[in-house]
Amino acid sequence: MPVYSGKGAPAPQTPGGGRFSAVQVDCYAGYRADESPRTIREPNGRRLEIAHILGRWIEPRHRFFKAATADGRTCLLRQNVETLHWEVRFL
Fold first, then answer.
1. Is 35 helix (H, G, I), strand (E, B) or coil?
2. Could you report the per-residue pLDDT of 62-90, keeping only the tens digit for each?
3. What are the residue ranges of helices labelled H in the chain?
4. Which SS3 state, helix, strand or coil, does residue 90 take?
5. Residue from 68, 48, 49 nearest 7 by CA
6. Are 69 and 76 in contact (CB under 8 A)?
7. Considering only CA atoms, which of 60, 62, 56 is closest in space to residue 28?
């Protein structure tokens, strides 16, 4: 069962459909490293600021963040808990 914190409905099941793309993510490090994503760095060098975290949850292999970017898009970020690599999918 996923752990969820955030406003609104409970955590969705592991997202299906669509493809995730590898990205680098700059994070706020508070009580833990990579506590909360702040900036997405795409392979082409473009930087996308995270305006709001809309929700977050944990599953056995990934940590998920649903986020709104400063340019008005919504995305799903996931971090592999073993490799610590980040991926993004825009919704």
1. coil
2. 999 999 999 999 999 999 999 999 999 99
3. none
4. strand
5. 68
6. no
7. 56
pTM over cut 0.85: no
pLDDT in tens, 14-58: 445 579 999 999 999 877 777 899 999 988 999 999 999 999 999
The domains of the chain are located at 35-91
Burial tier of 19 (Cβ tally within 10 Å: 0-12, 13-18, 19+): exposed
Cα distance between the two ends of the chain:
23
Q: Which two tokens stand for residue 51?
A: 């305006």
CA separation for the pair 54, 36 (Å, rounded): 11
CA–CA gap between residue 78 and residue 14 (Å, rounded)? 10
CA–CA distance, 81 with 36 (Å, rounded to integer): 14
